[in-house]
Design brief:
heterodimer; A: about 400 residues; alpha/beta; Aspartate Aminotransferase, domain 1; Aspartate Aminotransferase, domain 2; 2 domains; seven-stranded mixed sheet; three-stranded antiparallel sheet; about 15% strand; globular; B: about 160 residues; alpha+beta; Alpha-Beta Plaits; two-stranded antiparallel ribbon; 6 strands; extended
């Protein structure tokens, strides 16, 4: 029999998280700090709307690009939160999670061999999506001394004649880094000069703790070369509803819609109705969850300081990214031993790119009680390592 | 900062000043001062523990009593409310708009005890015109806390 698998697909490395997941799921009573989704349930009025839409029999396809009401609410939301205006008719596409939007954007824009600049550490799907779309991923290694922000210098060094797209993953998973307007301005200038398009993954936009999120699309001349991606998973605790969206210039959005039409048809109808209510009535819930994350974030940073774990202060998402370099172990070794000895699961920084070596991603999408329990174990482990090193 | 302190201790009065300071990114002194001020100003009136008595062997019944009263000249409802809420059996007492005047919440060992309170103490007050007693059959949620089934974290242990 011939090999049924395509070379491109076979060449893609499975997610580094997968391997760790397999070990963790073997353990019955492990405490996890490894999830990338909110611990809150979807606010009730949003769930209620989903239920109501089912009761009313709203169980048909929506138009390919999404419900008109939802697209309009998305535009209202982006105007009030980011001060960016999109036309709901042809500049918005409702997708199955932000992940689909990433995939579509790459497929709609890339010709074989064109390069995509991907800052790392970052979410695991940019590289595979780029490869599957025929592009060539070019990694930009973000540095701890820059608090994992993208600098103009790093960007310039990575640009070639074949560079077409820059992925901007901020607020960042796994580091929690954010980019301010001042940080983004030089990046935007370079992209305009070099005629580079931007995929700005802003799925954590609502979860920032040092002032409001700022989108690169809001800078002059940037909206026409940016695909802005957001969704409902993180802000409204709606991960299982699988709903995201992409906004951008109509020539790109229309091509993305074409692929979406053939591959997906439309995003889940129930989720779309629920999302309308999320955008209309969810602000107070988002604020409540944000405050709660912020308190846990401060709690973790304080605990790290106490146990001597070096960590820059992250102002976004719900992750902290402490350095474990002083223990002379790899991230993988540290995470594996922590799991075996204290039954606490964290994700090695290397799951998000080679330059995540020496770091751990610790999620604070857990109740304070759960965090305290896990931190007590982590502290005991760190003290033991320090003892080993001293003797 | 005061609102944030209240939001936290309303759910968890056990929390100490150090932890509050960490969670809010404030100094311990600032937090301690804010709490003292709020205690002095009777914004914070006490520190309670939420108990689901149904899960203990203690027998308790809770009753909500609608009370219609005749307000007194010059004193309105306050005087009669005071005569009622001063009974140690009374857990809470609210002046209401609508079909009746006072809502009296009562906790007793059993229905007989509650009935006795109503017939002996409440109904015999001159100003009380009528009462209607409702017994709580089951508490689903109180003070924002859902009493029903324990929730379990059903998320996968590790996700990107």
């Amino acid at each position: 029999m011939r090999n049924p698998i395509s070379e491109v697909t076979a060449g893609i490395q499975p997610s580094g998280i997968r391997k760790f997941f397999d070990i963790v799921s073997e353990m019955k009573d492990a405490i996890s700090l490894g999830v990338g989704e909110p611990d809150f349930d979807t606010p009730w009025q949003i769930r209620e709307e989903g239920i109501y839409s089912l009761e009313k029999g709203k169980t048909f396809y929506t138009s390919n690009s999404g419900l008109k009401e939802l697209k309009m609410e998305i535009c209202h939301y982006l105007r009030r939160s980011l001060d960016i205006s999109y036309h709901y008719q042809d500049e918005v596409l409702v997708t199955v999670g932000g992940s689909e939007a990433i995939d579509l954007a790459m497929r709609a824009m890339l010709n074989p061999g064109e390069e995509v600049l991907i800052p790392q550490p970052s979410y695991v799907s940019y590289v595979p999506c780029c490869v599957l779309a025929g592009g060539k991923p070019v990694i930009i290694e973000l540095k701890a001394e820059n608090e994992f922000r993208l600098t103009a210098q790093d960007l310039l060094a990575a640009i070639t004649d074949r560079t077409k797209i820059l992925v901007l993953p901020f607020p960042n998973n796994p580091t929690g880094a954010v980019m301010t307007r001042e940080d983004l301005e030089p990046i935007a200038k370079i992209c305009a000069e070099k005629d580079i398009f931007i995929i700005s993954d802003e799925i954590y936009a609502e979860l920032t703790y040092s002032g409001k999120h700022f989108s690169i699309a809001a800078l002059p001349g940037m909206q026409e070369r940016t695909i802005l991606i957001n969704g409902f998973s993180k802000a409204y605790a709606m991960t299982g509803w699988r709903l995201g969206y992409a906004c951008g210039p109509r020539n790109i959005i229309s091509q993305m819609t074409k692929i979406h039409q053939f591959a997906i048809m439309c995003a889940p109808t129930t989720s779309q109705y629920a999302a309308v209510v999320a955008l209309r009535e969810g602000d107070a819930d988002v604020a409540r969850m944000r405050e709660s994350y912020n308190q846990r974030r401060r709690y973790l940073l304080d605990a790290f300081k106490r146990m001597g774990l070096e960590c820059f202060e992250p102002f976004g998402a719900f992750y902290v990214f402490p350095s474990i370099k002083r223990f002379g172990m790899t991230s993988d070794e540290f995470a594996t031993r922590l799991l075996q000895e204290e039954k606490v699961a964290v994700v090695p920084g290397t799951a998000f790119g080679a330059c995540g070596e020496g770091f751990l991603r610790i999620s604070y999408a857990y109740s304070l009680e759960d965090l305290k329990r896990a931190i007590a174990c982590l502290e005991r482990f760190v003290n033991r390592l320090d003892g080993e090193r001293a003797s | 900062m005061k609102e944030k302190i209240l939001a936290i201790i309303e759910k968890n009065s056990k929390i100490d000043v150090h932890e509050l300071a960490v969670l809010l990114g404030e100094s311990e002194i600032a937090v301690a001062n804010a709490i003292s001020e709020m205690e002095r100003d009777r914004i914070i009136c006490g520190y309670h523990t939420m108990i689901n008595w149904e899960n203990t062997s203690e027998e308790k019944v809770v009753a909500l009593i609608e009370v219609k009263v005749t307000p007194q000249r010059g004193k309105g409802f306050d005087k009669i409310a005071e005569r009622i809420y001063n009974y140690s059996e009374v857990d809470a007492c609210f002046l209401m708009s609508g079909a009746y005047d006072l809502m009296v919440m009562l906790e007793g060992k059993n229905m007989r005890q509650v009935a006795q309170f109503v017939s002996d103490k409440l109904s015999t007050l001159d100003e009380v015109i009528s009462t209607a007693t409702h017994f709580v059959l089951r508490k689903y949620k109180e003070h924002g806390q859902i009493f029903a089934a324990e929730t379990r974290d059903e998320r996968m242990m590790v996700t990107p």
